[in-house]
Amino acid sequence: MDDVVAVHIPRETVNDDRVLILRWMVTDNQPVESGQALAEIETSKTTIDVFSPIAGFVRLNARAKAEVPIEHILCYVGSSLEAATAKSMHDQTAGSTTQSQPLPVSSVIRTPSGAASSAVPSCSAAVDRSNAESSMGKNAVELNQSVTAKSTRLSHKAMACLMKHRLSLDQFAGAGLVREKDVLRLVSGNSAQTAHDSASHRSQGSNNHQTPPRYRLADGVPFQKRPLQRSKRIESRILSWSQQQAIRSRVSLLVPTAGRRSIQRVRPDIADAFVTNLIQACARSLKQMPMLNACCLDEHVIEYERVNIGYAIDAGNGLKVVVIHEADRKTDVEIESERQRFIVAYLNQSLRPADLAGATFTISDLSETGVTSFDPLISEGQAAILGIGGERETGRTQKAFPLFLSFDHRLIEGRTAINFLRDIRDKLVDFELGILGTTTNDSAEASCSRCGIHRGRATEKNHFLVSVAGPQNSPQFVCTICLQGR
Fold first, then answer.
1. CA–CA separation, 478 and 258 (whole Å)
2. d(C-alpha 27, C-alpha 61), whole Å
3. Dihedral of CA 128/129/131/137: which sign?
4. Within a 13 Å sphere around the CA of 467, how many CA atoms are in the beta-carbon half?
5. pTM to 2 decimals?
6. Cβ neighbours of residue 289 closer than 8 Å, sequence gap 6 or more
7. What is the largest CA-CA distance in the chain?
8. How far is it, in rounded angstroms, from Cα 39 to Cα 48?
9. 63-103 per-position pLDDT tens digit
10. Domains of the chain
């Protein structure tokens, strides 16, 4: 069967465990050309086409409108229909295509933690059954065969744990590879729910035997029920990671500015010089503070070797996070060019998977909305996210905008987070000084009105200047050293 190629779902983004087959562009058992589009699939961020690697006959291995695991065998393409069919039947018999009957969208099985279970092809099912028979006995083998028939495969430890706690196999149907930790999560979740139900039952009295609802709806109000959008379900899983795993903290800082309009008059070649320079400043600060360009995986620190800035866009076509790769090495003109290309592709709904993959840090920009405060959520696989608030008036001639940094306290301390924001602020102030010649708020020569220390020297000591009202409300600066009485 060397003349048959198995076409897999490509792993376009690490955030996806499953993808949705939107539609087939070919008919089962029909001839196809090399490079011909076979199917359109939807990831959490975009839609992509899967193409035939060779010319031949196609044998489908999944149905349209079904969710299938990443790297699932989508179909077979063979030099003859007989070869493609034989290969499909051979793999199903060997157990390497146990996902051939994927669950529909409304029936996706998820682990008790709320995340979609990671399903993998069961090409080693025969080996697992052999090992299981020697260690667990005939009953364990029958259990694993039963679950495998339902698109699920248990590890040896998971199988033992399942039998120990007498759990139903149906609770893992369609979940792919189930490990011991998945079973333990279910056991823990059931115990917690049982305790909650018992306490509620006692508080309602012995005459009330109804199980309390897990979620309460508004009493007496008619409602309609519809499935949550798939993109929102995946977005919820990605962003809930920061609530469940990270020790999330937040700091904020006001950055003085001459104003966007003043900057734009000097740099008409860049559509939004303010945002572009902020992305560049953030990328270069991350290079100096690598713990913010990292993530915590179990009990290990993952430090990324590239600075890839994710920039969130939401203009009516759903939230997308485009990625400017190696932003620390690019000029402001190069960054602006990429940003504009992403915006056009977003509006045309033509963003590519590569445009959305590989972010090591994210910026959420709400500066155009006038928002004065918000709490950005850390994305999975990252340690921090920078939020930009709306420009505000801080005096008759002064302006400023707030920066909000949410960070994982397992990796980053408060002082490091504050220093990061200060460094971005100083870079932005220096940028305005360079293109305007001066700023309305701060400059490289600004100094403390009490001790005379210059801004640069204060920064070297991990301190900064604070704008305060002087005589007749004229702006003055006082360093944090003097404010702390040192």
1. 20
2. 12
3. positive
4. 18
5. 0.53
6. 416, 419, 420, 423
7. 91
8. 9
9. 888 888 877 888 999 988 888 888 888 887 776 544 433 33
10. 4-102 (2.40.50.100), 125-184 (no CATH), 238-440 (3.30.559.10), 445-486 (no CATH)
